[in-house]
């Protein structure tokens, strides 16, 4: 391994040394592509280029070709509108191996550029005894875009010298340069984890790379059986979905290392894999910090050589290493058991990991708030499943759309806008529409409130004494005014119809309304709750449903008890319109 930071030594000793597979790419081919791209970029006068690749070998060629040409590189984490706008504002050229949607700047297709044979033009590489050396300018760097804790994406600069130091540390820590193994992966090289483990580590260690990612357990298993020995670069999301049906007796002997990062592996999965003798190595780190620590069989995390840890009074972790720009503060809270290990306790901000992807709840909320229908929103991990949920207070336009087109239409409309700004995994799966979000004085919504909102069905509005009724009755204590058997007793109640009323299911998806029988049930329920009546009902008389009662409608209910006739008279109105009325006759009390 070469320690020089003015370039990269590729330890592939011969022109026909294999650099990548599927399809095979020899060193001479790799060298020719990098050299040809470097010349093209210099001819174009390009200074900033954005990369988007499926093929990791071509991506590696593009990265080195850009750096050798003095071009600064933007790594797009996805092709969402917001990401493409960032790339196209900062760069003048896309370099890719595929057609890109709605590209507003030129696209250089490296798959079309690649020559079939080594180029005869002057080479940017220098021949060394143990490989090829590529000189790189001191300011060679890549820019990665990641979710910020404030909700605004953050752009992180990674200099080549930092990536170089990080790769050498990992190779030494795990003796990767001595492993005759092919590196296969389920993660993308467009993110920091993949950039380090799928590009920088194999290039520095001379490991052969499988060019195409395998995103599913079945394809990863099939890919593994093509090689004698493999290193898996994968994630907790994939490891936690491994089916028992795969031919593990044929796969496990071929695994030299299984690297997992991007999130913390569930403890049950980790123990199960270690009990089955998996060569599992977890990595803890982030785009901002790079790798921080690792763990194998132990439960605590061990910092990698060169990494210094600090904690503040709230035990939030700060990291300084040869691959950070000074000290990098994180939002992770840790517990130090000793100087050589620590335990992760969680995060102190509103970032969470879903399927190993960092999701900013603030970012999701900001994206939703841009929709005309949304007045306020709170997102959180769903108590119903392992995805996000959203409590949404609709605007007047949102309520009108809900009433006119139904709940599904509103969810689809807001989701479509959110999907343009965040990863599809971050689009909330479960939605509730309270009339007002239950924020406290600090504008916070508690976890218990979220849990209750999604697990307790809404079967009626919150009825309150109407203002007219309250002004007519001086006492605030119902027990002082409402004797259970008092004759001619009357109540006036008011409420707004909840948007999440369970009775809207089936009445009707595109035109929700409160069924008449539900209004009758509310009248009886409220009368009994206020001790206006008791005993068994005998019959319903003169029952009428005259007008629709819809989501968010203000409504009033009058209840009048005639003790002589043992009948409850009720009306339900929205504004001046009567929606339901009738009499309920009760049996004589014993």
Automatic annotation (TrEMBL):
Question: What protein name is recorded for this chain?
Answer: AMP-binding protein
Location of the region described as Disordered in the Swiss-Prot/TrEMBL record? 466-487
| UniProt cross-references to InterPro entries, sorted A to Z | AMP-bd_C_sf, AMP-dep_synth/lig_dom, ANL_N_sf, ApeI-like, HotDog_dom_sf
Question: Organism classification, top ranks?
Answer: Bacteria, Pseudomonadati, Pseudomonadota, Betaproteobacteria, Burkholderiales
Q: Which SUPFAM superfamilies match?
A: Acetyl-CoA synthetase-like, Thioesterase/thiol ester dehydrase-isomerase
Ranges for domain AMP-dependent synthetase/ligase: 37-301
Q: Which domain of life is it from?
A: Bacteria
Q: Locate the transmembrane regions by residue number.
A: none
């Amino acid at each position: 391994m070469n320690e020089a930071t003015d370039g990269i030594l590729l330890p592939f000793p011969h022109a026909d040394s294999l650099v990548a597979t599927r399809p095979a790419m020899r060193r001479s081919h790799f060298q020719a592509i990098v050299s040809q791209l470097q010349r093209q970029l210099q001819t174009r006068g390009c200074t900033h280029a954005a990369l988007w690749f499926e093929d990791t070998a071509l991506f590696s060629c593009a990265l080195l070709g850009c750096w050798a040409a003095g071009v600064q590189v933007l790594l797009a984490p996805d092709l969402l509108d917001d990401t493409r706008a960032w790339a196209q504002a900062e760069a003048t050229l896309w370099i890719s191996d595929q057609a890109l949607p709605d590209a507003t700047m030129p696209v250089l297709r490296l798959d079309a550029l690649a020559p079939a044979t080594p180029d005869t033009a002057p080479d940017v590489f220098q021949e060394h005894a143990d490989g090829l050396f590529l000189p790189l300018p001191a300011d060679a760097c890549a820019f990665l875009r990641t979710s910020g804790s404030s909700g605004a994406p953050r752009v992180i600069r990674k200099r080549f010298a930092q990536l170089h130091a990080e790769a050498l540390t990992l190779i030494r820590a795990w003796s990767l340069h001595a492993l005759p193994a092919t590196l296969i992966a389920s993660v993308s090289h467009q993110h920091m984890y993949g950039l380090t483990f799928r590009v920088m580590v194999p290039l520095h260690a001379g490991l052969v790379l499988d060019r195409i990612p395998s995103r599913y357990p079945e394809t990863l298993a099939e890919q593994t059986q093509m090689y004698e020995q493999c290193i898996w670069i994968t994630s907790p999301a994939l490891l936690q979905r491994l089916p028992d049906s795969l031919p593990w007796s044929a796969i496990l002997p071929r695994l030299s290392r299984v690297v997992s990062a991007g999130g913390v592996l569930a403890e049950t999965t980790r123990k199960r894999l270690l009990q089955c003798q998996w060569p599992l190595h977890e990595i803890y780190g982030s785009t901002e910090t790079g790798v921080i620590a690792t763990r194998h069989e132990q439960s605590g995390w061990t910092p990698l050589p060169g990494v210094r840890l600090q904690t503040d009074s709230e035990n939030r972790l700060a990291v300084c290493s040869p691959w950070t720009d000074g000290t990098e503060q994180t939002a992770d809270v840790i517990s130090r058991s000793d100087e050589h290990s620590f335990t992760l306790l969680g995060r102190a901000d509103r970032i969470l990991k879903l399927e190993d992807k960092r999701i900013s709840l603030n970012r999701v909320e900001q994206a939703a708030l841009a929709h005309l229908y949304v007045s306020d929103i709170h997102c959180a991990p769903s108590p119903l499943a392992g995805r996000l949920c959203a409590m949404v207070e609709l605007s007047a336009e949102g309520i009108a759309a809900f009433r006119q087109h139904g709940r599904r239409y509103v969810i689809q409309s807001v989701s479509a806008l959110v999907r343009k700004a965040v990863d599809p995994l971050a689009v909330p799966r479960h939605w509730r529409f309270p009339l007002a979000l239950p924020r406290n004085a600090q504008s916070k919504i508690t976890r218990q409130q979220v849990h209750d909102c999604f697990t307790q069905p809404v079967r009626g509005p919150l009825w309150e004494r109407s203002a007219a009724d309250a002004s007519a009755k001086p006492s605030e204590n119902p027990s002082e005014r409402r004797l259970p058997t008092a004759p001619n007793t009357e109540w006036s109640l008011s409420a707004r119809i909840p948007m999440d009323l369970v009775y809207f299911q089936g009445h009707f998806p595109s035109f929700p309304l409160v069924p008449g029988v539900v209004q009758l049930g509310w009248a009886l329920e409220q009368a009994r709750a206020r001790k206006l009546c008791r005993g068994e009902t005998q019959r319903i008389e003169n029952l009428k449903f005259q007008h629709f009662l819809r989501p968010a409608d203000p409504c009033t209910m009058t209840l009048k008890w005639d003790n002589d006739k043992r009948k409850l008279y009720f009306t339900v109105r929205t504004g001046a319109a009567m929606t339901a009325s009738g009499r309920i006759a009760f049996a004589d009390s014993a």
